[in-house]
Specification:
alpha+beta; 2 helices
Length: about 90
């Protein structure tokens, strides 16, 4: 969908991409983590680059991630051109 959007046309990106944990057996959650963490990171970098292209220079991105895989997404975001400023953590006991 972002491929059809104008460059530098978005003020903010807020998303909850698949975490790639594959624990539920759902196709949408298979990003390659089980077989290759590098594959999962490349998947995240693909959408992060598309989001960076459509984002205005002053835009921000908020992406939710799972505790076991958020580091791969963070590196992918940085490699796509985003500047990592802050990280919010939702800590809870179960």
């Amino acid at each position: 969908m972002m491929a059809g959007m104008d460059a530098e046309s978005v003020d903010a990106v807020v998303c909850d991409p698949p975490y790639g944990l594959e624990f539920m057996g759902k196709e949408w959650d298979k990003l390659g983590y089980g077989s290759s963490a590098v594959t999962m990171q490349a998947w995240h970098q693909g959408w992060a680059e598309a989001a960076y292209r459509v984002a205005k220079p002053s835009a921000y991105l908020l992406a939710f991630g799972g505790t076991r895989t958020v580091h791969r997404m963070t590196v992918a975001l940085e490699d796509a051109g985003w500047i990592i400023r802050d990280m919010l953590v939702w800590a809870y006991a179960s």
